[in-house]
Design goal:
Elements (H helix, E strand, L loop, with lengths): L14 E2 L4 E3 L11 E3 L5 E4 L12 E10 L5 H7 L2 E8 L3 E3 L2 H7 L5 E10 L9 E2 L8 E5 L2 H42 L1 H6 L1
Parallel strand pairs: 1-9, 3-10
Antiparallel strand pairs: 2-4, 4-7, 5-6, 5-8, 8-10
């Protein structure tokens, strides 16, 4: 066959979306575009980069936390402010801030920014992946709940549980009274006397 008449069709797959935060989420009833994080469960999760044509690749992640000062631009804060906490070369697409780090480095009255950056693991040029925005996620502004908020929520939950127990007890008492009346009616014929 003539090699000059041959044709080959192929598709180049190398573009991938940058990761995006899944949790923490913004409160449904919150008017602020700031997520609230429980210090007892300070877990951050994000999407894995998706390659354009469905190819697969493995990634590692760096996550960085800085303080966001009032009126400050997020880009400036992430580039210039001191790092409050940082983890590099994470394999899973999640990070939990340890409680001792939160106690020493984070404060409930301040706002912070989180950003995760993905890097493709392969060094082979044949499996090159170009990540959007250099693999950097959008910024996630967040605050930590203070201890009083946690206590108020626990107290509210306890009150709701007590109210439910009271309602259940009342229903049980009413059922017991009904059963007792039915027993009396059957034993002494009280119901027949009343009907007549």
């Amino acid at each position: 066959s003539n090699p000059e008449s041959g044709a080959c069709t192929f598709q180049i797959c190398y573009k991938a979306q940058a990761p995006q935060f899944l949790t923490p989420m913004y409160g449904a009833n919150s008017s602020e575009s700031v997520a609230t994080v429980d210090p007892l469960n300070a877990q951050f999760t994000w999407t894995m980069p998706t390659i354009a044509c469905g190819a697969t690749a493995s990634f590692t992640y760096d996550i960085k936390f800085v303080e966001l000062l009032p009126g400050q631009n997020a880009d400036v804060a992430m580039d210039r402010n001191p790092v409050v906490y940082q983890v590099k070369d994470l394999m899973p697409n999640m990070c939990v801030i340890p409680m001792q780090v939160i106690s020493g480095n984070f404060f409930a009255d301040k706002t912070y920014l989180a950003q995760v950056t993905a890097q493709a693991n392969s060094s082979s040029p044949l499996s090159y992946v170009m990540l959007e925005n250099n693999g950097k996620s959008t910024f996630l502004p967040f605050k930590f709940k203070n201890k009083n908020e946690n206590k108020e929520e626990e107290k509210k939950d306890d009150n709701e549980e007590d109210e439910k127990k009271d309602d259940d007890k009342k229903k049980d008492d009413d059922n017991d009274d009904d059963e007792e009346l039915l027993t009396l009616w059957g034993k002494y014929g009280v119901k027949d006397d009343i009907d007549t």
